[in-house]
Amino acid sequence: MRIDIISVLPELMESPFRASILKRAMDKGLAEVHFHQLRDYGLGKYRQIDDEPYGGGAGMVMMIEPLDKCISELKAQRDYDEVIYLTPDGETLNQKIANTLSIKNNLIFLCGHYKGIDQRVRELHITKEISIGDYVLTGGELAACVLADSVIRLLPGVLNDEQSALTDSFQDNLLSPPIYTRPDEYKGLKVPEILLSGNQKKIEDWRHDEAVRITKEKRPDILE
Ligand code: 6GU
């Protein structure tokens, strides 16, 4: 998978891809992330990328020309499956969206800033709009990292068996059951007997029941 990220602040996104699981995915060639500085496509001597909104009002608008130049240049090099605009008014990211995107080859992420983008960029290029939750960030960059992480970890070969994504919370509309490791007792707190029993069938049943109980308690909204 290749992800091209367009932003006025690419520096903000470099470290997440330089550590741990995402780094290994890059090193193994399973994912490539390329950053594009929107200002390189800006207009005039000051490389302008934003301007005041027609009709007045507070805040600046990301101009169409720099965005169109940048996206068109990328599209001329390869076919993209989606051009995703990261914006608080997008569809809220969930595991299903991450799963769907993880089977694509080439994605563009556009990080929003200021009041947003000229509406015509949407008409020309944007195929999907994604938000990471109902709160406002200073820009789409951190959201782009969250989206990229949620997708890249699903690519075949990125996680090993112990980290398997199949048992993740949300993957089957259930939160994860409680987990424990050594010691079996700490300050009087004991690991549930059943997990020490060696009876795999009973353990799996217990885990499923606990997952249902915890989901009902914390997130009844995700239960089917
Ligand atoms: Cl994608 N962008 C910004 N600026 N704020 C957000 C967001 C995105 N998702 C949640 N809040």
Coarse structural class? alpha/beta
Largest sheet: 5 strands, parallel
From the 3D structure, determine the CATH topology of the largest domain.
Alpha/beta knot
CATH architecture of the largest domain: 3-Layer(aba) Sandwich
Mean pLDDT: 96
Helix content: 25-40%
Class of the largest domain in CATH? Alpha Beta
Strand content: 15-25%
Computed Rg:
22 Å
Low-confidence stretches: none
Distance between the termini: 31 Å
What hetero molecules are in the model? 6-chloroguanine
Family: Belongs to the RNA methyltransferase TrmD family.
Main location: cytoplasm
Catalytic activity: guanosine(37) in tRNA + S-adenosyl-L-methionine = N(1)-methylguanosine(37) in tRNA + S-adenosyl-L-homocysteine + H(+)
EC number: 2.1.1.228
What does this structure look like?
With 224 residues, the protein is an alpha/beta fold. The protein folds into two domains: 151 residues, Alpha/beta knot (3-Layer(aba) Sandwich); 54 residues, Orthogonal Bundle (Trp Operon Repressor, Chain A), CATH 1.10.1270. Helices cover 29% and strands 18% of the residues. It has six helices and nine strands. The longest helix is centred in the C-terminal third of the chain and has 19 residues. The mean pLDDT is 96. The structure holds 6-chloroguanine. 6-chloroguanine binds next to strand 5.
